[in-house]
Design brief:
Blueprint lengths: L3 E8 L4 H12 L4 E7 L4 E6 L4 H10 L3 E2 L2
Antiparallel strand pairs: 1-3, 1-4, 2-3
Organism: Corynebacterium comes
Keywords: Plasmid
GO molecular function, one term: metal ion binding
Length: 69
């Protein structure tokens, strides 16, 4: 299966602790190979194979955040 990279915009992720929390939860999603969150912009880049938007969104919610509309 091909590796894909997707970007998500996270609401309320504004500091280093926020970044760590979001990255930690997303790394647990099956199929995710790497995660890079930017608290300055709220952007989270997820790279991997065979992961779903629903699983990443659930991980972001588990970390205590939501996606920007």
């Amino acid at each position: 299966m091909a590796t894909v990279t997707k970007n998500y915009m996270v609401k309320g992720m504004t500091c280093g602790h926020c970044k760590s929390s979001v990255e930690e939860e997303i790394r647990e999603v099956a199929g995710v190979n790497s995660v890079e969150a930017n608290p300055g912009t709220g952007r989270v880049e997820v790279t991997g194979e065979n992961f779903t938007d629903e699983d990443v969104t659930a991980a972001i919610k588990e970390a205590g955040y939501t996606l920007k509309p």
